[in-house]
Design a protein that fits this description.
With 501 residues, this protein is mainly beta. The protein has 1 helix and 36 strands.
Length: 501
């Protein structure tokens, strides 16, 4: 059986699939040879974050720990920095700090994923990794690709080593979704509970309301529709992408990325949002009773996070340091044929129905040499020259500080006043100006700075701000001012490491 469209003929024959991969590899290698020097010499290329070797990276996919290694697959467009045809890239790590790139893992090489290997997840069972992902298909013709002209196929592929993969098996097609769903159903996440396997999918109804669909299986291969446990709500967006449900303590957490929510003051200011709600499945998982939806990250660049549980029992999250369809801000690295990156790994901790994000302890391995520690006490202003490079970890602990302002790098300003914390950027933001959150107090700030990114953790992860920015000037100093400013500053330079190309 074959499938023909504008890109040619697709055949399920193994030889045809192999030839298609060879053709893709040739194109990718030509692109790498042409653009790799420009990518690696870019002053904004980061040092300790997962990035694609060239081109575009977005959603983290298939996160798991398997046979003593952490695996991070990701959405990858190697042929353009603007996000074209999607493959899955792959990076591995022994320690969540140092990563090696392993090249392309999955290709769009069958009829049911011809227009992209879209987002999905990994489920580890015994000696096998089961990968579930969305195969994207767009038909030619006059279509809106919401109600007509699109296929969103749930596809399974397995692996015994994370490198070599089985043949693809289509599990669910458009006809397997409820009749009131649009053609936007995607991003499967799978887990096991009491011997039963469950899958959530993000969805958009025909009347433009976001929701999740829940399927169940006894064998990971045959799935039946179970319920729409959450969604179809007014004022909660028209599409819920990248759903992820997991337990923290005795609570069920639903993390997802709703599209179409309106801004409310300091909340929901990105073009698309990302957050979570805490609650519990009830009535045999027919319903997921949830509390308030809260943004997981308050910055400019955070979307489509995915979690997994590692062998230490930690719930770890990695997000895409970007937002789809963002028009108000830009990334100048496209001139050097690359765009975007992933966040540092963070452990999730539930604290009174609030999810805290804490950088994983393994990141301390990136610290270089001894730390610089300083005590600060002032009522007006102080300037300290303490940085050796743009790649550092900065920790500030405050004591009874009622308000403050911190200026660092070229034009980044962090401030706390009248119970509002703000992140403000100047021209280095390339259109990113201000994000803020209402918060009772700021007792500590932890900042991970890379050449073109900042990840800012308040109060041990109570609130987090993630952003890309692109300074043109090096600045070794930090400027502090504020009322009753007293505390300690600790700075670590971060060891640079390479992602193999």
């Amino acid at each position: 059986r074959s499938f023909t469209n504008e890109r040619g003929s697709f055949n399920f024959n193994t030889r045809e699939i192999s030839m298609l991969k060879i053709d893709f590899d040739k194109q990718i290698n030509e692109c790498i040879n042409k653009n790799l020097d420009a990518v690696n010499s870019d002053k904004w290329r980061n040092k300790y974050h997962i990035m694609a070797p060239i081109g575009w990276i977005n959603d983290p996919n298939g996160l798991c720990e398997f046979n003593g290694e952490y695996h991070c697959y990701y959405q990858y467009s190697p042929l353009t920095p603007m996000g074209g045809l999607k493959f899955w890239g792959h990076a591995v790590s022994k320690d969540l700090a140092n990563w090696k790139d392993k090249g392309v893992a999955l290709y769009p090489d069958i009829a049911e994923d011809k227009d992209g290997v879209y987002s999905g997840s990994a489920f580890v069972k015994d000696d096998t990794i089961y990968f579930f992902y969305t195969g994207n298909v767009k038909h030619k013709g006059e279509h809106d690709y919401i109600l007509t002209g699109r296929e969103q196929n749930v596809i399974l592929v397995t692996s015994k080593d994370g490198i070599n993969f089985s043949e693809k098996k289509v599990l669910l097609r458009n006809t397997d979704f409820p009749e009131d769903m649009s053609l936007h159903v995607r991003d499967p996440k799978v887990w096991e509970e009491d011997g039963v396997y469950y899958m959530v999918l993000g969805a958009r109804t025909t009347d433009d309301k976001g929701c999740i669909l829940l399927y169940k299986s006894n064998d990971l291969y045959n799935w039946e529709f179970h319920s729409v446990p959450a969604g179809k709500l007014n004022n909660m967006g028209y599409m819920w992408e990248c759903p992820d449900t997991f337990k923290l303590g005795n609570k069920d957490v639903l993390m997802f990325s709703p599209q179409g929510m309106e801004a409310e003051g300091y909340k929901y200011n990105n073009v698309y949002q990302c957050g979570y709600a805490v609650g519990n499945f009830v009535n045999d998982k027919k319903e997921l009773k949830l509390g308030e939806f809260l943004e997981i990250d308050r910055g400019f660049d955070f979307y489509a996070p995915q979690t997994f549980e590692d062998s230490k029992g930690r719930r770890i999250v990695i997000g895409w340091m970007g937002v789809p369809d963002a028009v108000e801000h830009k990334n100048p690295t496209i001139d050097n044929f690359w765009q975007h990156q992933l966040t540092i790994p963070r452990e999730l901790v539930l604290n009174y129905n609030k999810v805290y994000q804490v950088p994983v302890v393994e990141l301390k391995k990136l610290r270089k040499g001894s730390s610089i520690k300083k005590e600060v006490y002032l009522n007006k202003e102080a300037t300290l020259d303490i940085f050796e490079s743009n790649t550092f970890e900065l920790n500030i602990d405050f004591i009874n500080t009622t308000e403050f302002e911190i200026a660092l790098r070229e034009d980044c300003k962090l401030s706390f006043n009248n119970k509002v914390f703000k992140l403000e950027l100047g021209k280095s933001g390339y259109g990113r100006e201000m994000r803020a959150v209402e918060i009772e107090a700021v007792d500590s700030i932890r900042i991970f700075s890379d050449n073109s990114s900042l990840e800012i953790f308040l109060n041990n992860g109570e609130e987090v701000f993630t952003t890309r920015f692109y300074p043109t000037k090096d600045n070794v100093g930090i400027n502090l001012s504020g009322e009753n400013l007293k505390g300690s500053i600790c700075i670590y330079e971060m060891e640079a490491y390479k992602i193999e190309n």
